[in-house]
Design brief:
single chain, mainly alpha, two-stranded parallel ribbon
Length: about 130
Amino acid sequence: TEVIARRLSQPREEVDVAAELRKADTQAELCRAQRRLADASRRAETADAKAGLGPKLLNIPRWVQEEAEQQKANLAAGKTKDGKEKGKVTVGAAAPSYVWTGGGGTDGGNPIFVAGPPVQTSASSGAMAED
């Protein structure tokens, strides 16, 4: 409770959303900033933020507000903020690019992910035809 009282006694931080978006140099930075500010806009509508515990957002563009509404709808539907299903790992599906699927000198590898669809060569397809 002391932490909350200390935060309430300090002046509320003001964030100029339009100025933050103008700081982006590349399209990737702009997308990340827009997603981050939409998240902050969504959180600014909570009871804690309205009580003064969060930053005050100024000059929010329409598309950032729309992104915040989309995030809110996705979260209400039980999905992630970007609309993907939560916790869905499919066994046997191709691994994401950031997952290491090599065996590292063992005969195993990652049992959950496979490196991708098996590549058939002409020798292996002929051997399968004989079976």
